[in-house]
Amino acid sequence: DAGVTQTPRHEVAEKGQTIILKCEPVSGHNDLFWYRQTKIQGLELLSYFRSKSLMEDGGAFKDRFKAEMLNSSFSTLKIQPTEPKDSAVYLCASSWDTSSYEQYFGPGTRLTVL
Amino acid sequence: GEKVEQHESTLSVREGDSAVINCTYTDTASSYFPWYKQEAGKSLHFVIDIRSNVDRKQSQRLIVLLDKKAKRFSLHITATQPEDSAIYFCAASKWTEGADRLTFGKGTQLIIQP
Description:
The complex is a heterodimer.
Chain A lengths: L4 E3 L2 E4 L5 E6 L6 E8 L3 E9 L2 E4 L8 E7 L2 E6 L8 E8 L8 E2 L3 E5 L1
Parallel strand pairs in A: 2-11
Antiparallel strand pairs in A: 1-3, 3-8, 4-5, 4-9, 5-6, 7-8, 9-10, 9-11
Chain B lengths: L3 E3 L3 E5 L4 E7 L6 E7 L5 E8 L4 E4 L2 E6 L4 E6 L8 E7 L10 E2 L3 E6 L1
Parallel strand pairs in B: 2-11
Antiparallel strand pairs in B: 1-3, 3-8, 4-5, 4-9, 6-7, 7-8, 9-10, 9-11
């Protein structure tokens, strides 16, 4: 069974650009999470979907970050406009909602904003 | 909201010795406490978890202890091996109708010395 896949693995953007990160969760999983990982802040939750419904949109990340889940097997995270402080690794994770609480993480997208 | 603190940012132990990583949490409603491991250059993967209906759980060389009164939980790795070298993240969440959002600690870098 395929794990969580994320594309691209690396992204370089100029300040002010719009970028879209993609995630395919594990087949059959109902929950999907987007996190940002930095050395200073650690893992920060950006968005959380359950059965495609947005459960949490990450508070402070609302204004420039928008996650969508158009179907149960695909999600996107749009950052618009990008700023240098957005440079980080963006992780997508998925899990079942009642059978298992283990989150399966994708390999991440390393974003560099110049 | 919930805050999870990992007290050791780095921990170095000799191969074969035990390692203990400690975490505290603030929300008394939290009742699910997983641990994740991140090896160098890789993404996170689940290692073990504990729910608040027990105070100890063991899986091979991993033991998790939970002290609800002190709002503290810890990961014990016995007979450490070189492959245990990684960053370990603790997390906490409520236990509602299935998986809920996790709040992560900032991670502890475990170094196994030969």
